[in-house]
Fold these 2 entries.
Entry 1:
Amino acid sequence: MNASSTRSSHDGGLGLHALRRRFGAHVALRDVAATLPAGAITAVFGPNGAGKSTLLKLLAGSLQPTDGSISWKGATLDTRSAEWRARIGVLSHDTHLYAPLSARECLSFHARMHGLRSPDLDAALDRVDLLDRAEDRVAGFSRGMRQRLALARTLLHDPDVVLLDEPFTGLDAHAAQLLEEVLRTLRDGQRTVVLVTHALSEGLALADHVLMLVRGAVVLDTPSERLEADTFAERYHALVDAAEIARATTTGAPS
Amino acid sequence: MSAQDHDRVADDRAGPGWAAVVMAVAAKDLRIEFRTRARTLTMAGFVVMVGLLFFFSVDRALVRPQDIASGLTWITLILAGLIGVGRTFEIEKADGAMTGLLLTPAPRDAIYLGKVLANFILVYAIVLLTTAVFGLFFQLDYSNHPGALLLLLAAGTLGFVALATLFGALTAETTLGESLLPILLFPLLVPMVIYGAAASSRLLLGRPLSEVEGQVRMLAAFALLAVSVGAVLFGQIVEE
Amino acid sequence: MNARTGWFGIGMALAGVLVSAYTLWMVFFWVPTEVSMGIVQRIFYIHVPSAWVAFLAFGIVAVSSAVYLWLGDERADIAALSAAEGGIIFTTIVLITGPLWGKIAWNAYWTGEPRLTLTLVLGFIYVGYLMVRNATDTPERGKRFAAVVGIVGALFIPLIHMSVYWFRGLHPDPVILNPEGPTADPEIQTTLYVGLLGFTLLFLGLMALRYSVERAHRTLELREAA
């Protein structure tokens, strides 16, 4: 019973209501309204500067909207609250790891920051195939290994909502496959996943729902089953071009 | 993850205890410092070198070392501490570790106090080294109320570390970086130097405890103010 | 609000200029020469009101900063900025007239006089405040950082004040530094208070003008963004 519909039912999932975020004179997100269904994987696509990372930061509570609000299962969220931070896991470009510490120590520290009393670190490390390197310092890890450890750290406290910013970038094949498996397992476990990615085909294959942003505005918001995998790339580029043209004509200048 | 596991973790999700966060952050910082020894060695080397240079700069035929040792000690403490604490957020900037830390439910003021605790231990160790080095080079006699001396040095160090950690977090996010730290910090250190140097100077000269009580109290007030202000405002600095 | 602040600012500034000009007239033509310190003492009528304004301005900076941090009102930030820029000007006046007076009167640029020392420390805090504003990647963070510097500075000023005066008490200068002179003549007091009024009005006027300019600038930015 995956809630993968786009009926604007605000009682399920992450609701984005007239979200606006401005940085000085630059508007990163304008009137973004959508519902990212709970217990499903939503892929967020868009060209550079579309506001995808900004959206993710708003969901994580690192940034606050200039206007608008975010809701979770119908109730307006205070994304800055400790309660919200306790239920989200964020995986971004930065690994948030401490190089002089061992893999186990990094996880242990993270667990204590979440107040987890008896975390199963071994299981967490095993899930990302790092159990045999548990005592080794992160400084000696490859990029792929660090990403895997970061993933383990993100999931350690069993978050309800997992936010990922371009997690496939720079991953080796092994780590990428592992990540896909983990994401599917999360979805099967009724967790909500928001995946920002440039990888159109991989993202589409994983996603139950697709959101697309161009220049801070929503141009596509639909369940993935309504999209055709073969033609999606074309459609993507068409949407980007259309939005660019629209922007150029309204502002009267290319920017 | 099975339903049972989920429940178990959910029970765990009572949120982190405040004191537990302070301890965990302090332990993490100290563990990292212990592994890399970067800051400790830099500060220790600085102190010894400065002690030696001061030794060469003082003509003991004209000046009694005891008269100026106190002031020199405090200045050296500040400069060494600046080196050490200025780098406190470099660890956190690498790989965006601080961002990750802020995404957890751990309260900001607890994170701040954890860092202050770790920095205090580090810098106080250096302060003790400075006292020993200067005692050696200038043949100082610490036998007059050494406990009071250690206490007042601790109070001054705590206040210093609290302010330096707060502003260190700030300068780490500026384009000028660490070079901005002295400008922000030094005006606020005036009371610390005035009361601290006067008190330690008197103790060195064999004055009774009653003459330094007032200064020790002011140093304690300084430390308390610094820690409170830092705890409240740290959250404002690290927010994006 | 903006146009009104602008006119208010011009009005205040004009009033300030008039009163200050009157003060100057009083300083040069009316108030009698202070007996013990001579003609040079007249610098005092510029020096003391400037110091008063410098600290008043910082008080405004601190309160506005606190309002900005806790309520997020942009106007509070603009107020803090305007007050800081005015404040640092008057701080500079204090730091120039003080040593000047010292050199002429007692042949010493720096006598460790606690008020002057405190103003010097204040000057550094102002500099730090303004530097931090412009040193961040995003302007929002700069505003927040500056507010922190302003609040911390204000909270520490009492302690700094106490320590500087205590230090002074340990090393009293043979020179009697009572700027009002051993006898506080009514003319001297009057001139002083008129000067205080004039400088305060002038500062408030400058602050209001700066405020209206900055407010217009930021409102324009907002319109462009939409």
Entry 2:
Amino acid sequence: MTHDAPRSASAGTPDTVSVWPYLVRIELLVTLAAMAVLTVWSIVVDAPLEGIADPNRTPDPSKAPWYFLGLQEVLVYFDPWIAGVAIPLLIVGGLIAIPYLDPNPRGNGYFTLRERPLAIGTFLFGFLGLWIIPILIGVFCRGPGWNWYWPWESWDIAKPQDLVTINLSDLFGIHASSGAFAFGAVVVTAWYGLGPAWWLWKRRSPTLARMGWRRFAIMSFLFLSMAGIPLKMALRLGWNVKYVWVTPWFNI
Amino acid sequence: MNEFLHILSQPDNLPIAGMLLAVLALLGVWLRQALRNDRLLRDERASDIGEEMRR
């Protein structure tokens, strides 16, 4: 429990305890229990190994291990450099930056919903919405051809693949490459411009004044990037949109 | 539904069922404790939170 947490009212009850033995002892017991479970499991359940690899008979769908299926699912919506490099880097960098971005001590050492609705909402959105749900989609909803199959649908029914994908600019009747480039630039700039717009609108609020523009800029960039992922997923699933911004160098 | 049950019963995927149960159970534990603490905060009894969480 940190110094910011509410103090115990009862006399004689310590507010802090030593790591040894109180925490380490529990961790040791949990480690032993986990090892016992894994040992029994590995003895009782056979590893699901398949036959010898045959290049003429590849499995369909070919799925990554379950813990990577969220990443494999994100690859449907983004180019590999975004899904495999940029997004993981943003996740790790964002997690590292949390103590810098959010110095609010409320909620340290005790559970609360009322005092930290935005922080908890953001965490749940990222954890459940951007991690757990893509894993579940990849595991349960992707069948042959990586097509979407609901859990109650049979994989024996072949689904035609959507071979024709479009860019967001096509939805608005802009087909020329220069027009599509400019349209995408406007859309992406406008999306990330929501942060500065919010700053200008609320700049007199005590929260933003305490936060400072640098901290706010980093936080709004991370927040908008995070919120953009499900938007892009919806565009792809709903309208077959492959790219929001097409450039000669990269595509988003 | 056959594919769903088949996927779920694969030894590879057993951790997913465990993860789902763990996520739901731990979110439930957090929410129950958070609501209790919020009630104490609303009643201006923040000093009782430490004792409440030790129960």
